[in-house]
Design a protein that fits this description.
Blueprint (H helix, E strand, L loop, with lengths): L3 E6 L2 E6 L4 E7 L2 E2 L27 E4 L2 E4 L12 E5 L5 E7 L2 H6 L4 E11 L2 E10 L5 E3 L6 E3 L13 E16 L5 E17 L10 E4 L5 E6 L5 E5 L5 E5 L8 E7 L19 E3 L4 E10 L1
Antiparallel strand pairs: 1-2, 2-3, 3-4, 5-6, 7-8, 8-9, 9-10, 10-21, 11-20, 12-19, 13-14, 13-16, 15-18, 16-17, 17-21, 18-19
């Protein structure tokens, strides 16, 4: 049975479920910033993505050890994770997820994934992925976060969804792929969401074709901010090459997900070998890789 662990420090409180090691609450000054999983729109809060991000073609791929069979975003989000560490002051918790006979049928590799959530500032929560290759062959994987935040932000309920903007550290231009059939990515139908600008306006139409993937964002930082209130969320993700921007299209969904990724869905131009995926991480036996991003409420 799933359990919920609470961490707290000062004016910040966060809750994490053992199911998927998923963040379920991020409260600053008694205000809830995290989307509360209303199934009318999307019944999740902030899934952990591992060992793939996005989809592989038909949910299947080959790999050095045989066959992989995984739904979108992989295995970790639907598995129980065990609490293995807690900070003495209650401000941080670490979960652990290891391979099992069942995971080996879907992803034939031995691994350990530790997820740490730590309150690291007056309004900041840091999420850290630590992947260890516990096997004797190279481990191919990607990791990603998927936290969704309330829009309008708490304390700014009079604002509308399209009163928000994405802010960048400096003007830049980005070409983004489209989501193709089966959740794959294609640059054959790419578009330019940001062109020589440090701002991307939030519109419903921006998400008409699912998530928008940004690559090499300047400074590895992005802010979702209300233009009237100044409230919102900053995500700092220098360890991640990509960030996905997403909101559900069902109705007027009142949230936006900011998703740091180390990799992405299979490209339509790629084959179905897991190790061949663009930006897949290959981790040698006995080695560990660590990635962190932080969320700061504004």
């Amino acid at each position: 049975m799933s359990t919920v662990t609470t961490i707290a420090k000062g004016n910040v409180t966060a809750q994490i479920s053992s199911m998927g090691a998923e963040l379920t609450s991020f409260v600053v000054d008694d205000r809830e910033y995290l989307w509360q999983a209303d199934p009318t729109f999307w019944g999740k809060h902030a899934p952990v993505l591992f060992p793939i991000v996005g989809s592989i073609r038909g949910g299947e791929a080959t790999c050095s050890e045989g066959a992989c069979r995984m739904e979108r975003h992989g295995l970790a989000r639907t598995a129980e994770h065990a609490v293995v560490g807690m900070a003495e002051d209650g401000s941080a918790v670490t979960f652990e997820y290891r391979d099992t006979p069942e995971t080996l049928k879907a992803y034939p590799y031995h691994f350990k994934l530790n997820m740490t959530y730590a309150i690291t500032g007056d309004a900041t929560l840091t999420q850290t992925f630590t992947v260890t290759n516990t096997g004797d062959v190279d481990l191919p994987f990607s990791v990603g976060g998927h936290p969704a935040f309330n829009v309008p932000a708490p304390g700014a309920e009079s604002e509308d969804f399209e009163d928000y903007v994405f802010e960048f550290a400096e003007p830049w231009t980005c070409t983004a792929p489209r989501i193709a059939e089966g959740g794959l990515l294609t640059f054959d139908e790419s578009f330019v969401p940001v062109e020589n600008s440090d701002v991307l306006p939030v519109t419903r139409s921006l998400f008409a074709h699912d998530a928008v993937m940004l690559t090499d964002v300047p400074g590895g930082t992005l802010t979702l901010r209300g233009t009237k209130s100044g409230r919102g969320m900053r995500v700092d993700f220098a360890d991640f090459k990509y960030i996905g921007l997403w909101s559900a299209q069902e109705g007027n969904s009142p949230f936006i997900a900011l998703e740091p990724w180390t990799g992405h869905a299979t490209l339509t131009s790629e084959d179905d070998v897991l190790e061949h995926k663009r930006d897949i991480t290959i981790l040698a036996p006995g080695k560990t890789a660590e990635y962190s991003f932080s969320m700061t409420a504004l």
